[in-house]
Amino acid sequence: MLELSHVHKVYRVGAFGGGRLRAVRDVSLTVEPGEVVSLIGESGSGKSTLGKMVLGLSRPTGGTITFDGTDITTIRGHAARKEYYRRVQGVFQDPFSCFNPIFKADRVFEMIRTSYFPGVSDADWRDRVLAALATVRLDPGNVLGKYPHQLSGGQLQRVLIARALLLDIKLLVADEIISMLDASTRIDVLNLLSDLKERGLGILFVTHDLSLGNYVSDKSVILRKGAVAEMGPTLRVFENPLHPYSRHLLSCVPQLHRTWAEVDAELAANPPEDVVLPVAADEESAPLLEVEEGHFVGIDQG
Amino acid sequence: MTNVAGAPGAQPAAEPAAPRKGSETLHYARRNPKLLIGLGIVLAFLLLGLIGPLFVDHGPNEYVGPQSQPPSGEFWLGTTSFGQDIWAQFVFGVRTTFLIGVFGGGVAFVIGTAVGFIAGYKGGIVDEILNMLTNVVLVLPAMVVLIVAIAYLDARGVFVQGLFIGLTSWPWAARAVRSQALSLATRDYVDLARLSGRRTGKIITTEIAPNMSSYLVMSFILLFGGAILIAAGLDFIGLGPSDGVSLGLMLESAVAWSALQFGMWWWFVPPGLGITVIVSSLYILNVGLDEIFNPKLREL
Amino acid sequence: MTLRVNDLKVYYQTLRGDVHALDGVTFDLADGEIMGLAGESGCGKTTLGKSLIRLDSRMRHVGGTIDLDGKDVPIADDDAMVPLRYHEISLIPQYAMSALNPTRKIGRMINELLRSRGVRPADISQELTRRLELVGLDADVLNRFPIELSGGMKQRVVMVMATLLNPSLLIADEVTSALDVSTQRSVAESLVEFRDREYVKSMVFVTHDISLVYQMADTIMVMYAGRIAEKAPAKTIINAPRHPYTQMLISALPEVGSTMEQGRLEGIPGTPPGLLNPPTGCRFKDRCPMAFSKCSEQPPLLEIEPGHWAACWKTG
């Protein structure tokens, strides 16, 4: 459904754009219907840039991003772009900044209506909004007619997911959508994503938190400095991490029932086998090596 | 995220349901003393400038009465040392002052916001060129340019004066609007509006501009006040409209004819106070508007 | 006993009334203890951290006492608190990265701080270098501006600054939240190292991340809506929590290696009560599946086994 092929993003930085900042380097991946793909990385890994490019908010400097056969980087004109957003939507990290503070929160629904469903009657539209709110398990009385600052982060985030559901979307880009939520509401939003997945939605789940990444996703992509370090079925990536960077990350994640000391001791007792990493031919490319079926390892970046 | 318990975001249940939609801004506007006081004074002066002259049956510069009279029942604000009616001069002067403020401030506002919005939203090379232009105009010694330009012209009217003031005082407004637009254009809700299939023009007018509405009003008010002050300064050094009367011109002639030394307070106090009160109530009005437009400030 | 907090109440003043951010908090902190202070946003954990060192202008001390090493800590009296700060109690703030003055070099900032505390910088410069090295920083950072350092480096600089005078109590407020996982681990481990070397006697580590605090804390205290729900050794909180809130909170956390297929986790329905007019009785009762009639009375914080305190009628 969604296919990224050798996507690059280079920013010009500094005075007169003299410097170059490589944010995304040679990334290829796919998202199928009903599949959740986690993009996992630390700050500066390019994960959010990838999300923004899929949403057409930023343009790749190289490579193609195809959605159902159309290269979205070639979409020109407002009408075509609007059609794309009918099928692909995004939810962002900071729910508070996604709402224009001077308008009520439910205005995000109205915007969808005026853009995509101008012909729908008031009663019909209200039913659709209520249905979407029910899907995200929000009580309409608690959120309709409220200003953003009167709602909690979890409520706002679910309003935004409900907004995306008003359209008949195929792909949802969820960019760090729970990092600002509290532990007791986080899991509900994650569960909601998995319900949506059951309904056949493809989800690109961008996160910096490894434990969240593998709770929901079918496929995990670990990014480092813009390039893929490791990619494969989530269970394989977490049970048998191949790239030294993935192993390092996993050893640093605070775990609930195991301390760092225990993790280190375990690693020392059973040191994982070294894997031969692919070598990049130049500054631009970042080849992957298939170590086991569907499980790829990327270049070593020091 | 806020960690303050009970901060506005933390307790959704405590908020009373907002009853009406459109009238809400009005609801808060009616309860804001700063807005009411500022607006009241500005409107009172506007009204004075609009209808005051209709009740004066002689021209402001005609010699109609005894010389150097203090305020009395006949001449409310007294007369000048030539026997001109100061009340008549005052109401005509207020009219001129508003004209110059609206026109001069308006020209500066239109140029400034247009340049600011385009530079801020478009970014890149457009931004750099416009920014350079803004900076060039900003460092021009505006007063000197005005003095030279206006002294050079033969026929000096209110509009010419306003136009020149407008053409030289827009840069700071452009810079302010640009920086705001620049930061607003990267907000997530602007991205969200793009994802909702909104056009760029519509995003500027419905997402970015309303967030800046108080800012825009503030810019206009400050430009308005600034134009009044610049005009008063020009008038005071004798470069005012050659064919009329303004508060600045009144001050100029009061000083020129030694009203201060003769203790003729009624000659210089009304125009001086008029300028001060108009400009300061504009500023108070602006603070009040900020509190109304920003729902967060309402509750503090 | 390093720290003893007894029935502390601190309210936030707002135009709509007092927000009962801390409403009767009682606990002890032993010498050498690192206590993790966990809870959701708005539970009062940051307020508690701040109250131990400095009340801001909106915070009002309503009742209760704080003893540090047997001496009363006069938190309501800002002037009397000044000599205690840095010497006895020190804080690493949540946004330490932005707490550094961007126009000053790090070294100059540290010297100014020391002088304002009546300490000659020269007396301590060797110790400073040693501690910077301990957290993996070169002494060269003293000649750099904050902007030249990464987030993790700044956080470590602030850590060293805050503990330079060997305070008795260190409050670390969400110090690792903005860091990447690998930096997070090294910063957390440095904090433990500081305790082990007795640069600080004891520490309160405020965080929303229970799995992180489990890695480094000796005890964990869980707060809910301005009150203490449970305090116990870290292992006990994670493996055998007794308060229903703690139980639900722990079971809502996804773990590395756990997937949806292995078992769907559930969140806690509902939202915490507003603290402007907090409900009477147990504050968790509206979200608690075990609530019964007794819960309309406030449950006391009781020691249910040695070192394990909980405030719930079901555990008492």
UniProtKB/TrEMBL annotation, chain A:
Domain of life (superkingdom): Bacteria
Keywords annotated in UniProt: ATP-binding, Nucleotide-binding, Transport
Pfam families registered for this protein in UniProt: ABC_tran, oligo_HPY
InterPro entries xref list: AAA+_ATPase (IPR003593), ABC_transporter-like_ATP-bd (IPR003439), ABC_transporter-like_CS (IPR017871), Oligopep_ABC_C (IPR013563), P-loop_NTPase (IPR027417)
SMART domains named among the record's database cross-references: AAA
Positions of the ABC transporter domain: 2-250
Sample GO molecular function, one term: ATP binding
Protein name in the entry: ABC transporter ATP-binding protein
Native source species: Nocardiopsis tropica
From TrEMBL, chain B:
Pfam families on file: BPD_transp_1 (PF00528)
Database matches in CDD domains: TM_PBP2
Positions of transmembrane segments: 35-56, 98-121, 133-153, 215-237, 274-293
Keywords, ordered alphabetically: Cell membrane, Membrane, Transmembrane, Transmembrane helix, Transport
Segments of this protein annotated with the region Disordered: 1-22
InterPro entries per the UniProt record, alphabetical: BP-dependent_transpt_permease, MetI-like, MetI-like_sf
UniProt topology in membrane: Multi-pass membrane protein
Ranges of residues in domain ABC transmembrane type-1: 94-286
Listed name of the protein: ABC transporter permease
Gene source species: Nocardiopsis tropica
UniProtKB/TrEMBL annotation, chain C:
Molecular function (Gene Ontology), one example: ATP binding
Domain of life according to the entry: Bacteria
Alphabetically ordered keywords of this record: ATP-binding, Nucleotide-binding, Transport
PANTHER family according to UniProt: MALTOSE ABC TRANSPORTER, ATP-BINDING PROTEIN, OLIGOPEPTIDE/DIPEPTIDE ABC TRANSPORTER, ATPASE SUBUNIT
Domain ABC transporter positions: 3-250
The protein's name in its UniProt record: ABC transporter ATP-binding protein
Listed InterPro entries: AAA+_ATPase (IPR003593), ABC_transporter-like_ATP-bd (IPR003439), ABC_transporter-like_CS (IPR017871), Oligopep_ABC_C (IPR013563), P-loop_NTPase (IPR027417)
Keyword Cell membrane on entry: no
Pfam hit, one: ABC_tran
Species of origin: Streptomonospora nanhaiensis
